[in-house]
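Support case: 2-acetamido-2-deoxy-beta-D-glucopyranose complex. Customer-provided input:
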Amino acid sequence: MKTSCAILILMACFGLMNAAVKRDHNNYSKNPMRIVCYVGTWSVYHKVDPYTIEDIDPFKCTHLMYGFAKIDEYKYTIQVFDPYQDDNHNTWEKHGYERFNNLRLKNPELTTMISLGGWYEGSEKYSDMVANPTYRKQFVQSVLDFLQEYKFDGLDLDWEYPGSRLGNPKIDKQNYLTLVRELKEAFEPFGYLLTAAVSPGKDKIDVAYELKELNQLFDWMNVMTYDYHGGWENVFGHNAPLYKRPDETDELHTYFNVNYTMHYYLNNGATRDKLVMGVPFYGRAWSIEDRSKVKLGDPAKGMSPPGFITGEEGVLSYIELCQLFQKEEWHIQYDEYYNAPYGYNDKIWVGYDDLASISCKLAFLKELGVSGVMIWSLENDDFKGHCGPKYPLLNKVHNMINGDEKNSYECLLGPSTTTPTPTTPSTPSTTTPTPTTPSTPSTTTPTPTTPSTPSTTTPTPTTTDSTSETPKYTTYVDGHLIKCYKEGDLPHPTNIHKYLVCEYVNGGWWVHIMPCPPGTIWCQEKLTCITE
Ligand SMILES: *[C@@H]1O[C@H](CO)[C@@H](O)[C@H](O)[C@H]1NC(C)=O
Ligand SMILES: *[C@@H]1O[C@H](CO)[C@@H](O)[C@H](O)[C@H]1NC(C)=O
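Agent response - structure generated as follows:
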């Protein structure tokens, strides 16, 4: 009796000692808000600007997600997706997991996780696996072995989605919950983290998640608040609208915006401390059918051709877009309800996110009080610095979440349409933006007396006292604030071979980015391009 007690106590002590030396899988004490960064690791195969693990900045994210692992379609166990890139069993393999997890040596506060699934994995295998207790057990054990072998800090479940696509809407929801319970129990002794990437769509959420229960089990959930509209639809729309427009009264548009999704999670059992909101570093694009129809909701001709880096139809990453904006003539507008830009050249129409719109999404999520931001994905940012300093979007996220601007609620496009009462007040004098684009369109819509014939409206810039007057329209070009006081030409902020034209057309302000003819540069005094 006594001896067995002593042994038990000894074992308990060893257990504690073990726990004490074990890695804290969630050590980000320095940065209290989560910055969860996904990496689409197949981007190492991009022909232009391949993205490698060494391109990751280990100090700007609190959590890094390796996308993706898969499950074996016969055994239903977790599997390395691309042994050549990911694994380290053979000398010729590239040790991706190891290099990724070793980023924690550079930043001890960093947490690294494996993400399982993703869109292209489909739903069927997962549906089959969770329906069978034996498969589930094998799966859970395989995950434990996997995390131990490759030294990840936890698992991120990215099944898209329980009950949808080739899943089973009748039983997936309960089976998914059962799986998450079993994973949670198995992870407990090791302290592994358990998270999920979850759908932004109300219809998918309703079929997939027992939110109240899942909220207790997951360390947190990454809400994929993007992909609301894209080339699978035949009209132009935005990838990630923050709010709905007043004219959008149909069900689809009422539900399909960031604000609706986040409130839906909060109203159906998710808590703020368990919610992390996604921001996209890419846009979704269409080919233009008719050059005279380039408004939101106008008919499109299908997905845009593959981007020159990412190679995916209908998708343009920020690193592609910022370079296209520099090379060609583009027309860009910000929707004041979407709080995000869209634009077109002569072939492509794209709804995307940039520095300004991301600042608004960050202000929104901070006002909402959720526990962090998720990024899809690092390789989509201008990590090479082709258009300015490297990683412009990631740096903005880091600054506004855990950096110098962490007390700022500034939305660079003006006040958000909600009138928030921030719980942690910032210093309003410095951070509250002077509302350049006011939020009620009825009052702000300028009434230009003469429609836009640039020749007659050519401004004499010196007469405008730009410090006291309120601009009619503000926007960002290459991350620089552009103020339109009237219609007319302005210098391009970063490129002397270009100029900007502020124009009011069809009820909205536009900033056109115009090239000078070859061999000439812009001269603002003469309002024309001159020979260098
Ligand atoms: C968390 O990380 C810091 C280093 O940034 C380290 O000093 C501390 O011991 C860690 N805490 C735990 C519980 O691992
Ligand atoms: C945001 O969503 C909430 C809940 O659905 C709604 O009450 C509110 O009006 C929305 N805000 C805006 C500006 O659309």
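The chain is about 30% helix and 20% strand.

Case will auto-close in a few days if no follow-up is received.
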